[in-house]
C-alpha cells in the first residue's frame, strides 16, 4: 500500500529537520571554550583541509622528479622540518 503524498512530504520534512539538528549539535561540539568564555571553532590547518581524506597525514616530501624551482620553494618554506599537520602548502606539488 502506497503512502499518501502529504505523508511522504511530512516524513521528508521531519528527516530534514533531524539532519539540521544533528549538524547543529556536531558544530557545537567542535567548539571549545578558552579563557574568555568565547566559543571558537577548533582550527584546521590548510594541509588538513586540502587532504581531508587522510586523517593520519600526508608525506609532504616529494621523491619523484620535480623542478629546481619547486625544490627551492620547499627550502624557503622549511618543508624539511615541517611536521603534520603544520605543513605549508608550498611543500606540496601542484
UniProtKB/TrEMBL annotation:
Segment forming the signal sequence: 1-19
Domain of life: Bacteria
Key words, A-Z: Signal
Protein name: Uncharacterized protein
Organism name: Aquamicrobium defluvii
Amino acid at each position: 500500500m502506497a503512502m499518501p503524498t502529504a505523508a511522504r512530504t511530512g516524513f521528508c520534512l521531519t528527516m530534514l529537520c533531524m539532519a539540521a539538528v544533528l549538524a547543529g549539535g556536531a558544530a557545537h561540539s567542535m567548539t571549545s571554550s578558552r579563557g574568555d568564555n568565547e566559543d571558537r571553532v577548533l582550527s584546521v590547518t590548510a594541509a588538513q583541509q586540502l587532504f581531508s581524506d587522510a586523517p593520519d597525514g600526508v608525506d609532504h616530501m616529494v621523491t619523484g622528479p620535480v623542478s629546481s624551482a619547486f625544490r627551492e620553494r620547499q627550502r624557503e618554506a622549511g618543508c624539511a622540518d615541517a611536521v603534520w599537520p603544520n605543513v605549508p602548502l608550498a611543500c606540496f606539488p601542484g
